[in-house]
TrEMBL record:
Location relative to the cell: Cell membrane
Source organism per UniProt: Nesterenkonia xinjiangensis
GO biological process, one term: transmembrane transport
Major location (coarse): membrane
Keywords assigned by UniProt, alphabetized: Cell membrane, Membrane, Sugar transport, Transmembrane, Transmembrane helix, Transport
Positions of transmembrane segments: 6-29, 70-91, 97-122, 134-157, 199-219, 239-261
Entry annotated with the keyword Transport: yes
Protein name: Multiple sugar transport system permease protein
A GO cellular component entry from the record: plasma membrane
Keyword Transport: yes
Homology family: Belongs to the binding-protein-dependent transport system permease family.
InterPro entries named among the record's database cross-references: BP-dep_ABC_trans_perm, MetI-like, MetI-like_sf
Entry membrane topology: Multi-pass membrane protein
Domain ABC transmembrane type-1: 66-257
């Protein structure tokens, strides 16, 4: 912590550290507790640690759910990029009143609650035979995240000077070649930022996974967590152990892409 910052900044940092740090600490500590110690005040910090929750949950179901999560997150990321990259480039370069309409439409789509789309998509996927399949969840996640990705990518393409594209055109390069060899490499930080964010969001998506995967055996990790809650009670150590295990892959992705996320999310904030 930077103690040269003002008192307001220090208090704010301490507040958010406690706000987010205490729940994370509780999750990790609970994952090493016995069920009888979870809500025992005397065992809040001092208890005999046990790894039974981890050994009990590391099984074939976890491996299968991990594979489903990887497939959904990677598939949704690829599909979102295939749609949002050309869409964002077009919105950045075309000067027409329809661009404003398109941007407003994207914002409206982004504001629509996810729950409102479940029933229409369920009927649509039922007609298309996509229920209980990875393709259905991937398409639903991509539809959810594409407006956000397009809006976030547009400033990266707007930051590429038009003079570079004009120089490419003078040298005989066509539109696709100019985009592929000049524009896209210069906007690669934006594409990588969107890739990281989309992967993280698709990894943790829960509602579409439990709605469109009809067989619990096909659930990804985010839905597997919900199976720790039953009518007979909640296996708190098991739930917290799964939470820790499922957080490790996205923690690795977040750490490896932290600089991109930090810089990419501020693009367009200052002119």
């Amino acid at each position: 912590m930077n103690f040269h910052a003002g008192p307001v900044a220090i208090v704010t940092k301490l507040f958010f550290t406690v706000l987010y740090g205490v729940p994370l600490l509780w999750i990790v500590l609970t994952s090493f507790k016995d069920s009888a110690d979870v809500f025992e005040p005397s065992s809040a910090l001092l208890f005999e640690p046990t790894a039974q929750a981890y050994t009990r949950n590391v099984n074939s179901n976890l491996i299968d759910a991990l594979g489903q999560s990887v497939a959904i997150a990677v598939g949704a990321t690829v599909l979102v990029l295939l749609i949002s990259v050309p869409a964002a480039y077009a919105l950045a370069r075309v000067t027409h009143w329809s661009v404003t309409v398109g941007l407003i439409a994207l914002i409206v789509l982004q504001m629509m609650p996810q729950t409102a789309m479940v029933i229409p998509l369920f009927r649509l996927f039922g007609d298309w035979g996509l229920l209980d399949s990875l393709a259905g969840v991937i398409i639903a996640d991509a539809a959810l995240l594409t407006p956000f990705a397009t809006l976030l990518l547009r400033p990266f393409f707007r930051a590429v000077p038009m003079s570079l594209e004009e120089s490419g055109a003078l040298d005989g390069a066509g539109l696709f070649r100019t985009f592929w060899l000049i524009v896209l490499p210069l906007a690669r930080n934006g594409v990588l930022t969107i890739s990281s964010i989309t992967f993280l969001l698709a990894w943790g998506e829960f509602l579409y996974a439990v709605s469109f995967m009809l067989s619990p055996g096909g659930y990804p990790l985010s839905a597997l967590l919900s199976q720790q809650v039953s009518a007979f009670g909640i296996d708190w150590p098991g739930l917290m152990a799964l939470a820790v295990l499922t957080s490790i892959p996205i923690l690795i992705v977040f750490i490896s892409s932290y600089r991109l996320l930090r810089d990419g999310l501020t693009v367009g904030a200052v002119k």
